[in-house]
Sequence to fold (928 residues):
Amino acid sequence: MSGEAEASTGQSRGEADDLVARWDALRRREAFPAIAAIAFVIVFPLIFTNLPAYNGYMSLVELIYIWAIFAIGFNLLLGYTGLLSFGHAAFWGAGAYAAGLFSVAVSGDPLVMVLVAAVTAVVLAMFLGVLSLRRGGIYFAILTLAFGQMMYYIALGPLGAITGGEDGFTGVTVDPLFGVLEMGAEFAGVLGVLLHDVGYVVFASFFVLAVAAAVRIVRSPYGTIFQAIAENEQRVEFLGLHVWRYKLAAFVLSAAFAGVAAGLHTVHARYVAIASLYWITSGDIVIMTVLGGTSSVFGPILGALAFLYVENIVSGEIAFWLLILGVLFVTVVWLFPSGLWGVVSAVRTAVRRRLLEGRS
Amino acid sequence: MGVAGVSLLATGIGFLIQTLAVASIYILVAIGLSITLGTLKFVNFAHAAVYLAGIYIGLAVALELPFSGDIGRGIGLGEVGLGLGFLAALAVIPIISFGLGLLMERFIARPFYDRPDTDQILVTFGVLLIVQEVIRGLVGGRSMTFTRPEWAQGAIGLGPLGTFARWRLAIIAITAVLVVVVYLYIEYTDVGLAVRAGTEDAEMVNLLGVRVTRPFLLIFGVGSGLAGAAGVVSGPVFSVVPEVGIGVLVPAFLVVVVGGVGSLVGSVVGGLLIGAVEVGLQMGAPTWASVGIYALAAVVIMLRPAGLFGVVEVDE
Amino acid sequence: MTILAITGLTKRFGNLTAVDDLSLHIERGESLSIIGPNGAGKSTTVNLITGLLQPSAGEVLFHGEDITGAQPHEILQRGLSRSFQTASIFPELTVEQNAIVAALGAEHGSFSLNFLRRLVGYDAVAERARRTLEDMGLYEQRELEAQSLPYGDKRRLEMALALTSDPDLLFLDEPTAGMSPDETETTVTLIERVKQERDVTIVLIEHDMEIVFRISDRIAVLSQGAKIADGTPAEIQGDPTVQKAYLGGIEL
Fold:
């Protein structure tokens, strides 16, 4: 990548190369994903709420962050480790109900609620993981589906008195953050334009944390081992690594993300629907993650964005929005495994190539 | 035999008939799933799409199908119906479904044979979703009535043993005939031999390299035909909504898993077991009815992953 | 000193006895070849020892410790390693990443709870990976996707992976299968070099008698699951039982 060889157009070529090289180095630095995420949560709502047909409320943006957290975690399991779970609604629902029940029984502190949800999801995942991970492939998918459905019917029927059954769990009380900051308290002036209200800061912060955590995990030995397992599980075992434990770790980590997202969702919606345990929710997260692109940490964010945008905005205009998503989904699985993020990446690569080739 | 004895017998027979009726639908759908998974190693969520087609096209043939979905209204198709009656539907739909099965094999399954399991699940799930939504768009999402044919309405009384809905008996009879026919086909024909060999020796299938030989194609078709028949038969029993495709897919998969992959006998036994558990719990402890079948499947997978009669373990 | 002691190892698949009461001991530092006609149970034996299959009966002692039926990762962690007949690598990862996985297995233990650790600064792992690749002449290709390598290089990578953990005992399962004469020569030279430079005991499963006689200190002959001969190359060469076992007899 040296500009010296072409001395004639050297100056601009060298500058462009230098720029690209410095950008690459910057990208690889530890803090970059977190900083990019922070920039994103500041800029994104300003753009998004001004899109056509949008009626300008922040709630959907926050919902996107919440589902994005769920999807990022889910992709650690699907995209990186190659395990397809059709029952992640179990962790989403369990976490959500746990947070709701906790808010009524003990405290409505939003941070603690999220913690409770996450812990619930993790414990459940350790249990279900041991049961589900005995077999791979299709059996794992069916087992997770089966357990998810079991939980749904248990929550609907036998435990209906606690969960509210078909009507869902109402009466979630959310106390002010740290006891003083009301979730709905808006900021004034410039801060208000950039950060909106306390609630937004909470959701956005968790989003940034989730992105940073996922990147860290992927850049750790776990990331490489997960990918190796997806490609050649047997070889990994024969290199001395305890494959089953790493699979369980992937499962539990993905559940932890789901739990955090679920807790946030309960805080956000102040309600837990019984549908949060239903297979449709499991299907939704699969669609979101795959649509966004399973080959990177950031793909699922796009997937959540696209899915929720279509589900909430497009659905107002077009009735067959789910059909559209279905077609997009199949197209991605069939032809574009790197999903929406792949499209973004392709654009990025084209831009780089342009820069590296100079003005031609 | 005292009064208590008779009433016990009546309950028992009632339970049996209910179980057989419920199991019948699951069995018809499960057979196709099982054979495809066993011989072609292909996970086919889109199998339920054929089932859906069976219901709705069956409705169109037997009675009439109102195109009252958003897209349907847009196209202005109004109501399409041949009004030929149930038996006509029962005769025609399996053939149409057979064709759909061949199409599915050619255009969906074949490109994905060599791709990982997860991709197969994802793409067939996506196809099912699309079919479900297309139906919703054309026909509408609200529940429709598939009225039972006259000869199957009402009940038959067996004296002190109770009365039993004719329709349930009809389902059982139809299913039994279909299953026996398919069983004989597999056991006693060359095509069936190839399939049996295929399910028993996955290695051979691999060595053969060519997955798509006529016997396998035919079995794909036959399985789909059964699924379509299941659709027609279950129309008058289950609610007719687009979601019922996935609704039947899950129990069907559970049946395949419990009964064993690649085994017709396994699908029958598995279906009976699942039906029995579901019906039994519904009679005894209704809130646990659905939980029970999932628990059963989970236990079987964990203890005997190949299923009760399975000869193939479909593992990574 | 005996590094691996196998006693009465048996494996039954239903009515078929694939390995029949096999007893064998391997001395530290020697090169042992296991040969035999097809279906003799050679690969099954390796699979039993390395934990891929559970024995029906028998005992395997490694460094005097019982590893019978242990899980592969445990066995690997104790200092045993194996390569596979096919190039069992990670196709979509880079060559470097392939080596890193192997290095993680060697340095990182079979499992670690630390999922926040940076791989970038993990010097021990990076160093080991680099050493392995350089040793096998694959360092130049480290940024390439493993599946883009020519077949011979893939096999070398396969062996590199097996060697990364500096094993005490190395099983090579038909390392030259499907190779051209040139590639075979390269591989055999490589094995000889490994033998010389490292303190490793090598067990070779092979069909090619030339290689067997070139590399081995000792040969064990299997036929139909049982050991029928065990001795130096010279002893095996002259053994009539061995000649009979190979249908029609191969010129040894």
